[in-house]
Amino acid sequence: MGSGLEAGHTVDPDQFEPGVPDEDQARLHLVDLELFEVAARFSLGLTKRWALDVTAPFREVRVSADFEDETGEHLPDFSSIHHRNETISGMGDVSLAGRYRWKPLNLAGWIFDLAAGASLPTGAIEDDPFALGAQGLPHQHIFFGSGTVDPVLGATGYRRSEVAPFVGWLRWSGPIETNSKGYRAGARVSSGLGFSPSFGLERWSFLGQLEVFHEEASRWAGRDARNSGRTDLVANLGAFWSPAEDWTAQLLVRVPDNLEARGGQLDLGPILSFGVTRSWSLKPHDHGDSDHDGEDDV
Predict the structure, then answer these.
(1) Average pLDDT, the chain
(2) Cα–Cα distance measured from residue 119 to residue 175, given in angstroms and rounded to the nearest whole number
(3) Helices H, strands E: what count in the chain?
(4) Distances (CA, A) of 53 to 16, 97, 99, 217
(5) N or C: more exposed end of the chain, with fewer CB within 10 A?
């Protein structure tokens, strides 16, 4: 996955750089970020209805920081404790979830995957950047973990039909405690509904979907963090190709439209992701199994 993010904010006097006269202070911070993620997802089918999912993300952020004075003049040699040109990379929080496949009899054609689990504190965390900034010390606003075990819930529905193949989903994650550095991540909820036709192609399927994403503000020492918390409407377009029975490649483009951002300073660009799925059986198929009911395996 790859995307870009632009952020900018004016500078209050309490954010001035230490040891720099007021007339030489930057009055506008402009930050461009290039975001990349590679995630490995493993799904183990335990029975025909139960499965265990594990997701392990690795992330990288490339930061480019610029500064302007009160007249809008660029300050090429300005040094800041808040932002700098750098590349940050590391593991994110690994998630574990149990998944149950439900096929209600009164909803013909629909299959639902219901999931519950938690993200584990495997990603790096940082000290309170606002407390360090108030002391005039260098600090970091970018990190890849919450530092806590956070519950995750999800539901995905599929309607297999050549006429109306729908897909929809709802996901929620949220912390139940504050980490050792005084940080509490904001709860996240996202939901989408889309159409997934094949247009009569044997090895192809496509996806058109609208998604709503909402993230609550994160908190440091019990106070809302500046410029955190947002609501986006996201258009998703995707293509899926299965060159063989057990292989699928997918290309997905997500185009967010920000509806609300606390501070109004975040501009997220299109998100492009590519993935490959390989499935296999851990034991030989027994075609003579009398209790096989024709249900889809998880």
Answers:
(1) 90
(2) 9
(3) 1, 17
(4) 46, 5, 7, 28
(5) N
